[in-house]
Amino acid sequence: MKNVLVFPCGSEIGLEISRALAQSKHFKIIGANSIDDHGKYVYEHYITNVPFIEEENFIQEINKIIKEYSIDYIIPAHDSAILKFSKNSLLVNAPIITSPLKTCQITRSKKETYDFFKNIIATPKVYKKNVGLTFPVFLKPDVGQGSKGTYKVNTEEELEFYIKKDSTLLALEYLPGKEYTIDCFTNKNGILLFAEGRERNRISHGISVNSKPIKNPEFQKIASKINNALPFQGVWFFQLKERENGELVLMEISPRIAGTMALYRVIGINFIQLSLFDKMGYDVRIINNKLDIEIDRALFSRYEFPIDYNTIYIDLDDTIIIGNSTINTTIIKFIYQARNLGKKIILITKHKLDVETTLNQYAISSSLFNEIIIIEQHQKKSDFIKDLNSIFIDDSFQERIDVFENLKIPVFDIDAVESLLTWKS
Q: Do 287 and 181 share a structural domain?
């Protein structure tokens, strides 16, 4: 098993890397951040207070982490981090998972990217000194990612307002058509093994949050031209947008994984794992199930409770089993996670039928529980809870208020069990 450092681990890129590698038997992931963000709730092995990449001691501190945690590979999870690591690859004591420095330098700047490719593929018209503009005009930072800091302007006054706010903005022709991301993989020999597109149907905070695969032979042709012009290794992607006449125009290129690459990951292409194996010198191959799939992303909650407990007392009816037909899979996931953590699980129920028969009916083994307590309808569950270093889970408010008031232990309805799950890996 190789130790892989992800920095910064709480970016959308870092979170997708976690999802891609969390279950791998080949890699142990260690997340690192300069500030605490969502990565703290996702990475089991987590390092905080790493210097920012602009600080003088950044490389020195990274090398200390490499030594302390026996890091085998580093995956930069932000465009600026990619360039920083690439420029200092000879000083960093672990291999960097990205493309060669030349590619990282050119692709970090939109202007350099457009200048480099203007005679190879279609690039947007860049207005110089705001001369000969045709409104609307699209403003985009020279150094940036996604659609952050971009503006569509319709007048000279709007243009001057935004340029004064950010003098690095490029004034580009406005492209009104659909937008696509083409996810790519190039192996250690420079051979493009994969290039397929997805439509960016809905964007939120610069991130594609709804996407589906799109077949277009032009995607492959453009990908090949880019791959032949610049050296890549491992995962990378580029974005295209349509002119009014349907012509595809290059928007940006990035030598890294993208968060919405999860779309292709779930149908067989784990880009970051392929990149690691390729860096290790393996001849990698790709499995593509070519399934018709759509991804939709939204904010998802993670929780961290400052409570410790040894035992879980949990109800059966309308808690583990909903109604007379459905197993509560969130509860089952929680029970297995608790078992993995060495918690004691006690089923406490007023079930009117034979409990063993009911559990068998739902393919739930009675051995899942350390103990099964069956009580009468008139009895109080609080009278049967002996371990006070415990929590109580029950759909019944009456049962919960009884336990809470008499035993003073934390009680949870079934909708709150998601807060007890651990997502760290």
A: yes
Domain of 331, CATH number, reads 3.40.50.1000
Model confidence at 227, pLDDT cuts 50, 70, 90, reads very high
Residues facing residue 214 across a β-bridge: 197
d(CA 89, CA 74): 10
Give the separation between CA 222 and CA 396, rounded to whole angstroms.
Answer: 60
CATH of the domain at 201: 3.30.470.20
Q: Per residue in 142-185, pLDDT tens? A: 997 766 788 999 998 999 899 888 888 999 999 999 999 999 99
Q: Tell me the two tokens of residue 275.
A: 């990149």
The span from the CA of 425 to the CA of 422, in Å, is 9
Q: Do 273 and 246 belong to one domain?
A: yes
Contact 359, 367 (CB under 8 A): no
Tens digit of each residue's pLDDT (9 = 90 or more) over 229-280? 999 999 999 999 999 999 999 999 999 999 999 999 999 999 999 999 999 9
- Same-domain status, 158 and 196: no
C-alpha closest to that of 311 among 293, 335, 292, 329: 335
Q: Are residues 251 and 325 in the same domain?
A: no
Q: Are residues 195 and 289 in the same domain?
A: yes
Per-residue pLDDT tens digits for 315-358: 999 999 998 789 999 999 999 999 999 999 999 999 999 999 99
What sign has the CA pseudo-torsion 418, 420, 421, 425?
positive
Strand intervals (E) in 77-227:
137-141, 151-153, 169-173, 179-186, 192-204, 207-214
Q: Residue 4: in which H helix or E strand, if any?
A: strand 2-7
In the listed set 262, 296, 330, which residue is the last one of a domain according to the structure?
296
Residue 130 has pLDDT above 80, yes or no: no
Residues 183 and 229 in one domain: yes
The domain containing residue 411 runs over which residues?
311-420
Residue 263: both structure tokens together: 């779309």
Query: How many distinct structural domains can be found in the chain?
Result: 4
